[in-house]
User: Which sequence fits this backbone?
């Protein structure tokens, strides 16, 4: 009773100034909801004719850290960016006919990281946190446990089957998610030899940047950041004069981009188009330096990738990572994370326009969730970055609907919780309040959604272990 009484008082207080929550008049009519539900049912009945085709193409959209609360909040944001209330908005991924849940734990972790989970949904094998492309028999950071424990990815299986393959990411191409597609490394942080202990190098372990070019030669499309790990130390990147200050990290003096290019020049016609395009504009733009005038959006990268890959009559496999959803959340910057999620949804829409469910299976999922959530009895259409319509009945201060369980947004002033009304909580870099102070917000442990469409998409049903996805 106490809560509802408080709710009523506060709703009156706040709505008194803002007006009633707005919703379409038609929603008052039960017929509206019945008709809506009937239409949905009619659609669902068509699913009895299962798509039993054999998929020629497969696209995996991986929202790094895109837990279910992030999906819902991104849906509302997308609607609000279009001038709608947001709750009723339909994301591109919402249109997928089959949805299941994936259990994300790593073999040695209840709350997983991106490396162990990538090994699961790319290689079909659950693994230890911090490791990519190796089984749970490999121990993190111990080079001598690599040999014999390598596991291969669906990208490799597709390449071996004669398909074209591609990787598109908004993070580094040598980061945890993409690296499990081609590398076998007991340490996700071994980006170049510079990041590896001398002992690991002596024992014959290779850095991830090197493995990108050596393990699966001729990956047809590679777009993302992480270029500095491919250049020698003290060599500046001449193709990006504006970022020349970022010289390479490699101690072995190798210029992997040049080596790769020399090799690609001997390749067949198919690569010529991709070669000129991605070497000049797209390949390896540096993380956090995205210039919206010159750097491509995820949607643009996906479009170019599909154009290149679909030239192969045997089909293709494409891994697309919306990688900065995770970064936004780690920093407690929900606005950044949600805008990244909306952008990934736009990319899903673009891919949909360029492919057919007749021969293309598309899967959208996340590696893990975050300690992100939103709530607080907000009225319909409440700005997703806005306040709950009540004051705390403990400290009498307002609070934002979006909150983190832990992270850098924990803030007290003179020992008491900050009054968010005194600051701009809708700022791009605002860090939402967290219950526990941490410099970096953590991942969450709950299941993630797996959306699927296309041939045999119905086999992604129910609750699965995450390593089932590529199987
Ligand atoms: C493997 O390397 C670790 C150090 O990373 C060392 O402690 C261990 O003894 C080595 N094991 C073998 C069998 O060489
Ligand atoms: C890079 O330059 C620094 C300073 O000029 C020098 O000390 C270092 O030895 C150089 N490293 C390599 C790998 O050439
Ligand atoms: C919070 O800040 C607002 C705006 O400055 C102010 O009106 C309100 O009284 C403050 N609340 C508390 C509990 O300090
Ligand atoms: Zn993360």
Assistant:
């Amino acid at each position: 009773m106490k809560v509802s009484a408080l709710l009523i008082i506060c709703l009156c207080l706040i709505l008194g100034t803002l007006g009633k929550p707005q919703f379409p008049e038609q929603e008052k009519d039960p017929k509206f909801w019945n008709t809506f539900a009937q239409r949905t049912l009619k659609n669902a009945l068509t699913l009895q004719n299962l798509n039993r085709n054999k998929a020629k193409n497969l696209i995996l959209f991986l929202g790094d850290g895109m837990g279910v609360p992030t999906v819902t909040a991104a849906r509302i944001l997308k609607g609000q960016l279009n001038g709608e209330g947001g709750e009723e908005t339909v994301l591109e991924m919402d249109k997928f006919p089959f949805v299941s849940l994936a259990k994300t734990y790593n073999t040695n972790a209840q709350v997983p990281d991106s490396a162990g989970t990538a090994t699961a949904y790319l290689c079909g094998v659950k693994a230890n946190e911090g490791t990519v492309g190796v089984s749970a028999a490999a121990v993190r950071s111990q080079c001598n446990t690599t040999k014999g424990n390598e596991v291969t990815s669906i990208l490799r299986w597709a390449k071996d089957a004669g398909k074209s393959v591609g990787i598109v990411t908004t993070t580094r191409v040598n980061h945890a998610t993409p690296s499990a597609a081609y590398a076998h490394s007991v340490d996700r942080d071994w980006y170049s030899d510079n990041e590896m202990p001398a002992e690991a190098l002596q024992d014959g372990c290779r850095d991830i940047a090197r493995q990108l070019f050596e393990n699966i030669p001729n990956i047809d499309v590679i777009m993302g950041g992480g270029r500095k790990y491919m250049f020698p130390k003290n060599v500046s990147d001449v193709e990006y004069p504006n970022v020349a200050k970022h010289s390479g990290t490699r101690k072995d003096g190798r210029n992997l981009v040049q080596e790769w290019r020399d090799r690609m020049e001997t390749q067949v016609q198919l690569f010529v188009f991709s070669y000129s395009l991605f070497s000049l504009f797209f390949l390896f733009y540096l993380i956090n330096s995205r210039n919206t005038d010159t750097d491509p959006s995820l949607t643009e990268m996906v479009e170019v990738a599909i154009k290149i890959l679909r030239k192969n009559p045997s089909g293709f496999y494409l891994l697309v990572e919306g990688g900065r959803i995770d970064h936004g959340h780690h920093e407690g910057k929900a606005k950044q994370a949600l805008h990244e999620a909306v952008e990934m949804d736009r990319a899903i829409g673009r891919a949909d326009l360029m492919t057919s469910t007749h021969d293309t299976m598309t899967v959208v999922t996340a590696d893990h969730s975050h300690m992100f959530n939103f709530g607080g009895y907000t009225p319909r259409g409440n700005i997703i970055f806005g306040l709950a319509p009540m004051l705390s009945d403990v400290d009498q201060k307002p609070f934002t609907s979006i909150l983190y369980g832990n992270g850098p947004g924990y803030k007290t002033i003179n020992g008491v919780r900050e009054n968010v009304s005194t600051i701009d909580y809708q700022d791009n870099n605002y860090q939402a309040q967290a219950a526990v102070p941490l410099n970096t917000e953590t991942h969450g442990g709950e299941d993630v959604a797996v959306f699927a469409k296309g041939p045999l998409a119905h086999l992604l049903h129910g609750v699965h272990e995450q390593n089932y996805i590529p199987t």
Remarks:
- The first strand starts at residue 57 and ends at 63.
- DSSP finds 13 helices and 17 strands in the chain.
- The chain has a mean pLDDT of 88.
- The pocket of 2-acetamido-2-deoxy-beta-D-glucopyranose (ligand 3) is lined by residues 396-397, 419, 421-422 (CB under 6 Å).
